[in-house]
Amino acid sequence: MAERSGTASRLIAGSQVVVCDGAMGTMLHAAGAQLTQSLCELNVSSPGLVRDLHRAYVAAGAQIVQTNTFDGNRLRLGRAGLADRVTELNIAGARLAREAAESAGEGVLVAGSVGPVMGATLVPRVSQSERASALREQIAALADWVDLILLETFGDIEALALAVDMARSECDLPVIAQLTFGDDGRTLRGEDPDEVAAEIGALDVAALGANCTVGPAILQDVVAALAASCSLPISVQPNAGLPRRQGKHLQYAHNVEYFARAAQQFVANGATIVGGCCGTTPAHIRAVAKSVLGLTTVERPRVAGRRRQARSAVDASRSIPAAAETWPGAGFGVAVAMRAPRDVDVAEFVVRAGEVLASGVGELAIFDPDPPAARVSSIAAAMLLQERLGARVILQVDAADRSLAALQADLLGAHALGLHIVVCRTGAPRVSGDYPESESLWGVDSVGLISALSGLNEGIDWRGVSMSSRTRFSIGASVSPAAPDRDRELARAEEKIQAGAHFLLTDAIHDAGPSLDFIAAMRARGMSTPVIAALAPFEAPATIVALTNEIPDGVPVDQPAGFDPIDRAVDIAAALAGEATGVLLHAPLRSDPRLNELLDRLTTLRCRR
To answer: What is the second-level CATH architecture of the domain 333-428+440-604?
Structure first.
């Protein structure tokens, strides 16, 4: 190991430009690997495919090949049921890269690729010790088989510094430390290159650099700033550019010549190591190798590392707000849910909401069970009620048809506007008619959305990047007490609670019996999370029939002749008062005096418990 380590150190610190390889994931996906599968697992299931890709990069002129182990830590592999195979998959990946490197004779190094512990769909509530342990385990598995460790695509200084510490504790190999920068030239957490150079540049690393997320144009200034702020060798591996989605695939620009010219400019700006990331191919690396052949690194003045005060993932310097709002509070709470208005003339909507609040209801909720229409967004409707009436408003948010990034952006905006109570639902696919191009995006379900909000409450965004402040969402999750497969629904409820749900909101209840049984089963399993019962007494009988017969696993609802839905709603609420924490009444579509009658009759249930 010492000999290989010395060779790697001399190459990185030398005066000649070093060529690294290009994208692994892009090429494996092009070869048929699914976007959702663990690419690290291909080291065992499709070793020939992985080895041939390494050989293609070696043949193109790469002097450093990276192992196919970016997702090789315990937490990421755990999502694919592979948590107990960390050592096996990492060693297999290193051996494949080594075989390809040795096929070229001498001079090609193997870099153990280590990515961030947390990704977009991982439950973000992972302690720093768990992250450190996962990084340490992966690096230990790679260390005896590679020439250097390459930490890549880290989103913030804290996460990268932790990875460097784990690498230093496990091996004496050279470490290349790379962060990913956005189109604003800052890390995903918002740190500028000067901050990166000051903090990471003071650590025991062989090179500092940038990779992924953006193309060469933006990273030119990043490389120049890093080179001007520290004396370490600078590495850069940009994406081919911004991808365009073509069906289920991502398409990148065919820009081999442009990429080669960019490599020359990177060297002029101070880069020592140049390669590629997402969207790049062996053709890109061949062009880069030719373009930098014979180039020497730029002479740079020595810059002393300026180590700033370390910041932990839960540093007291970060803004920590008060605890999340709880809903409902003590006693048997009553809230009323209203549909967002369909028309831009919202006067009637506000008047109706005011009438409901005047009845003594503590909270209003905005929900939209309908397919897309000309409707005011739920966030805008909630903000309207909050500003004009001073109401506390509950948001229902469906994940269907939305990406996690878009959901997070909307919800951060809602939080900034004072909307802190959110009920997370997976939602239903939106029917778009007989249009061949229509498709439903299922990037995240309710559990993923709950996890994302829980992460925001802890100062971690959906990418696993720590933020400078925390949110204080009160997070709700939906449950179906009358689901035919109760065990499955109970397991799903437990999963939502573990992801961070503070309360559960039932589907509309038309019979108290199944809900009481469900809550009792929850308590028997140790789930003490508050349950709020949704009641929809104003639904037309035909709607209830449709829910029974047109939804998968619909549960029959008994509607005896002449029954009064208001009486039934009061009876259900009374039956649940000892087990549920409150009720959410779905308001009628139009003004209906029976709503006030029902609210008056529920007054006796709103006693403090």
So the answer is: Alpha-Beta Barrel (3.20)
